[in-house]
Amino acid sequence: MKLSIVIPAHNEQQNIVRCLDELHSVVWEQNLIPHEIIVVNDNSSDETESVVQSYMRQHDQVRLVTRPAPGGFGRAIRTGLDAVTGDVVVICMADLSDSPADVVACYRKICDGYDCVFGSRFIEGSSVENYPRVKLVVNRFVNTCIRLLFRTKFNDLTNAFKAYRTSVLQDCGPYKSSHFNITLELSLSALIRNYRIAQIPISWQGRTWGSSNLRLREMGRRYLCTVLMFFFQRILIRDDVMAEQMASQQRRRERLGTDASPLYRLDDALAAVNEELAADRTVSAAVVTAAEPAAGTI
Fold first, then answer.
1. For the chain, give me the number of helices (H) and strands (E)?
2. Which of 160, 170, 162, 168 is nearest to 74 (CA)?
3. CA–CA distances in Å: residue 109 to residues 54, 96, 117, 118, 257
4. Cα–Cα distance between 189 and 173 in angstroms, integer?
């Protein structure tokens, strides 16, 4: 499967070359994964665009998409997703906060059969460096609330570093978020549709140059609106999701009935027998109950 790496970049001239070099080294030179890297120049005012253009002359796998105003992290991600040609999409930051080795780990998990892979900085095996204390406290509070609200084990849903099958993104889209809340829109839209999702530990470190564009107060309202939207959407689409799952199971039963191995057909037959026995026990219990006099009667 072909891997598409989407990198939103706003004023990242000091980071982008090193980011691309490390990705190329780990993804291609060490693992020979067929891939493309899509850098989305998000209305940068520095030399990000010219730096990437120069890099592209020696690296065919790198593509540049330039966004005009208005900018925004979510708009950049949406533009990058529209440009992918691969089967697996990984969203990676240009500031070197995400490890290229984790990109490969996510890709391998998708190849194992998962639909999505969520990177977590807060499970066993993960590592975090230079995370501002205030943002860390806010992150843990917000993600705990989301985890409880959606009754899920995933504990870092606001993190942008995730991998998706392209078909999943197409099924869940189109996306609307223009800012950092797109990280929640992407993950929650897949979560409420019951896709097969894996969570893996990742390494994360604070940026080495420049400043973060995330503003906590500004994003609080957007995160809240996104969470509430998907909480109610989960209720609205529940019947549709169940209908799709039942149709999928029916197709599987039909397929097993025609070309499955005898072992699989035997399993289905045993399941049917067990269902009939359970029904017989229910009927027998009902008959016995009906035959007994009710309490207080003669």
1. 9, 9
2. 160
3. 33, 22, 7, 10, 30
4. 8
The answer to whether the CB of 97 falls within 8 A of the CB of 207 is yes
Measured from the Cβ of residue 214, the count of other Cβ atoms closer than 10 Å reads: 13
Question: 283: which residues sit within 8 A by CB, 6+ positions away?
Answer: none
How would CATH label the architecture of 3-236? Answer: Alpha-Beta Complex (3.90)
| Residue 150, token pair as written in the block | 């959606």
**284 touches 277 (CB < 8 A):** no
Q: Given the structure tokens 């609330």, which residue do they identify? A: 145
Distance CA 215, CA 227 (A): 18
- Alpha-carbon gap, residue 92 to 249, rounded angstroms: 35
**Is the peptide bond prior to 70 cis by the omega test (within 30 degrees of 0)?**
yes
Token duo for residue 187: 């993950």
Instruction: Decide: 91 and 25 in contact? Cβ < 8 Å.
Output: no
Q: Which one, of 102, 100, 97, 139, lies nearest residue 122 by Cα? A: 139
What pTM was estimated for this model as a whole?
0.79
The string of pLDDT tens digits covering residues 196-218 is: 999 999 999 986 554 555 566 77
Within 8 A by CB and 6+ apart from 295, the residues are none
Dihedral sign from CA coordinates of 133, 122, 218, 41: positive
- For the stretch 121-157, pLDDT in tens is 999 999 999 999 988 999 999 999 999 999 999 999 9
CA distance linking residue 63 with residue 40, whole number of Å: 9
pLDDT of amino acid 255: 76
Question: Measured between alpha carbons, how far is 219 from 73 in angstroms, rounded to an integer?
Answer: 12
Tokens representing residue 294 in the block? 């009710």
Domain ranges of the chain: 3-236, 246-291
Phi, psi angle pair for 163, to nearest 5°: -125, 145
- What is the dihedral sign for C-alpha 40, 83, 222, 202? negative
